[in-house]
Target: Hydrophobin
Amino acid sequence: MQFKAAFVAAAIASLAAASPTPRDDQPGNTCSTGPIQCCNSVSSTSNPTIASLAGLLGIVLPAVNVAVGLLCSPISAIGIGGGACSAQAVCCEDNSSSLISIGCLPVQL
Model:
């Protein structure tokens, strides 16, 4: 009888250890600044072309050498049908413009 109880306890413990749990280290579809963006290209605010484009759009760029994403769109539902990015996946501090996202950091999908 004791063997049976020990076997049941071991089986329950192994099931509990094998059950899936959410992990914080897996990529999601959001950053602390908003959704992960897929940008056609990423450049720097020190690039004269970027500075000119921002000026034409009335966007004030921060200090020199800040990464800027061009033509970015949010990536939705990573892992569920398409949520992929064929260009550069980034998290950006300012996604307020549809053409330029400011303060971007690369993200691994």
Summary: Strands lie at 30-31, 34-35, 37-44, 67-74, 88-94, 100-106.
